[in-house]
Each structure stands twice: as C-alpha cells, then as structure tokens.
Write a structure and sequence with these properties.
This protein is of the alpha+beta class. The protein is built from six helices and four strands. Helix content is about 35%, strand content about 15%. A four-stranded antiparallel β-sheet has the order 1-2-3-4. Helix 1 crosses helix 3. The longest helix is centred in the first third of the chain and has 15 residues.
Length: about 170
C-alpha cells in the first residue's frame, strides 16, 4: 500500500486485520443499509468489541480513517486494507440518507441520477442498491454499527484517489 499518512505500516496492517475480522460480527444496531428501517436487532447481543465507542472495531476504523482518508491515497489501498465497501453511492446526499432507510436512499440516488452523477457501483461482496458503473466520483461506505454509524471515503472525479473521508454518526 502506498498510503501518504503518518500511520506506521504495521499499525495500518493490524487495524486492517482487526477491522476485517470484526466486520463479520453482527452489531446490535444492525448491518444492511437495505434492511427495512427500524428492523429489529433484538436477537443480537451487545458486543463490546463491535458496538462500543472506542471498542476494537471503532478503534480499528479510526486508525484506517487516519491512514487511508488522506487526500491522494489510492482508492485501491482502501479496498486492499478494508475489503469491498458495504455500499458504494454516487453522492454525499445518498450517504447521509442511509440512516433514513431504503426509500430515502433510493430518492437520493434518483436525485443524483437526474443531476448527471454516475450511479452507485458495487465491488466484491458489497450490497447492490442501484445499477451503475464504476466511473467518476463515488462514496465508499464501511459500516461500524450498521446504518447507525459508518465511515465513508469520497473518491476524486476519476474514482481513483481518495478526496476525503469522514464519519457519519447518529449522534445520540
């Protein structure tokens, strides 16, 4: 990886491995951006490592944000470290709409499509929310605690380099 951050390569590798491991563990807050809004997660127990602010998954994602969210970082480095995103969207409005549920996501995507933005695309095991192709600016979304809290990377207009990255949290 060719990250331009000040995060040591060993710390980046450890955070990436921890994230990929804990990504498979369900969150009390759910996971899929396409599950019905308000879908029950009562059967999922609170997992300190996954659900807690400052827990292992959150800490790993913070490190990955510092390492890979630096503008100019190759987007392929994000994929290499974190795996395929949970969802790829065409606009920041669509990213923000994830917390509002599937209907809001589709409305934001439709608005982006009418504005001439490329549709979302999916790489690897990420969820499909609409048809489209991997061209132009996109937003790579990685769930921390489902659509409750997530990290996203914005790519440049060519979709090749990171333009920025930030958290979107429910803010309770």
């Amino acid at each position: 990886m060719s990250s331009t951050s000040s995060v040591p390569a060993t710390e980046l590798a450890a955070a990436a491995a921890k994230f990929r491991d804990l990504r498979a563990h369900p969150s009390r807050f759910g996971g899929s951006p396409l599950q019905p809004h308000g879908a029950s997660t009562e059967h999922v127990e609170w997992d300190e490592r996954v659900d807690s602010y400052g827990g292992e998954k959150h800490a790993a994602m913070e490190t990955l944000l510092r390492a890979l969210g630096v503008p100019g970082t190759p987007a392929k480095d994000v994929f290499q470290a974190m795996g395929p995103p949970d969802v790829v969207l065409p606009s920041e409005d669509a990213v923000r709409s994830l917390q509002a549920g599937p209907q809001a996501i589709q409305q934001a995507i439709a608005a982006s499509a009418h504005a001439g933005a490329p549709g979302p695309f999916i790489s690897g095991g990420a969820e499909v929310v609409a048809a489209g192709g991997p061209q132009g600016k996109s937003f790579l979304v990685y769930m921390w605690r489902g659509v409750h809290d997530y990290l996203y990377f914005e790519t440049d207009d060519q979709g090749e380099k990171v333009a920025g990255a930030k958290w979107l949290m429910a803010g309770e």
